[in-house]
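Feature request, filed as a ticket because there's no other form

It would be nice if the structure record came with a short human-readable summary line next to the tokens. Right now we just get the raw output. Example of a typical job, pasted below so the devs can see what we mean:
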Amino acid sequence: MKVLLLYFLIINSVTFLITGYDKFQARRHNKRIPESALFILAFIGGSIGLLTGMFFFRHKTSKTTFIMKFLYIILVQGVLIYLKSTNSI
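Raw output as currently delivered:
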């Protein structure tokens, strides 16, 4: 259980920092982090980090397509958690 908590702490911290870095790069019109990379990080456990980064850095909060894709990831994770809690998977 401690390993899992450590994993989530690390993946969410990395996702938060990468979101901030992408915002930093966007302000300077430099090479950006692909949205697909942000979505992958969110999907593998960094959803809280991405959500926190979005609001903290005010990044991607006005991009409707990004938000819809992110909400889809949250929905899939919620379904997986539900199925796991009911021992369906």
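Something like this underneath would help us a lot:
Helices lie at 2-27, 35-56, 64-85.
DSSP finds three helices and no strands in the chain.
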